[in-house]
Amino acid sequence: MSKQSSSSITNATTVSLADEEAVKRILVETIFGLWAAVNNLTRLRPSRRERYRVTIFGSARTQPGHWVYKEVKRMAEALAAMGCDIVTGGGPGLMQAANEGAEAAKAPERVHNIGIRVKLPFEQEVNPFVAEAFEHQTFFTRLQHFVLLSDAYIVAPGGIGTVLESTMIWQLLQVRHLHDTPLIFTGPMWRGLVDWATKMMLRQGFELANAEDMKIPCCVDTADEAITIIREHHARWLAEYAESKTAKN
């Protein structure tokens, strides 16, 4: 940046649009300032969340009628029946299966059926079983929304988007930005991913991670195993929630 441009930013109250470098500098500084403000706001958390929410990640391509679709639907229905809100990406495929299962539960206490979408030129609309929808312009803010909203994560079979979502949660648990948050990988494809990471990242003399990092995801083979893990975690959450309410009174 030229001395003249720098001076125009530092000393003048206004900047001419003709000063292209100064305008770029102001835009960059403003955008970073907005990010800093958003990052600061996302540090805020309620002392206790009033609803227990399970996010289910999975493919947008799996069609109704496929056995995996049916299993994800059954799993979400069981979770909703125990009072868990269900959060998905809000789209078709296994996201729809999860939202459909939550609606099918007809739980006595109304379960929140949530979809967090990202705006894409080729994606379908929000699936018809989502009761509360949010739309983001970027994957970055969408992923952060999942983090702010969820108490547990189940990863069903999926593609590149599901890999992105699940590995972000894995890293946040690794660096302890998330605590006591189940990350459950269901099915052989994810066990294969963890096996690959263990083999390639823990090579003796060229370690790229810690052995404990490979134990963060819980790999299971069936929906019933995932339900069992969530049921146990949900029970602990309920006990802590009741204790916190008693302490306030």
From TrEMBL:
It catalyses: AMP + H2O = D-ribose 5-phosphate + adenine. It is an enzyme of class 3 (hydrolase). One of its GO terms (molecular function) is AMP nucleosidase activity. One of its GO terms (cellular component) is cytosol. Gene3D superfamilies: 3.40.50.450. InterPro entries: LOG_fam (IPR031100), LOG_family_nucleotidases (IPR052341). It comes from the Bacteria. Its EC number is 3.2.2.4. This is AMP nucleosidase. It comes from Nitrosomonas communis.
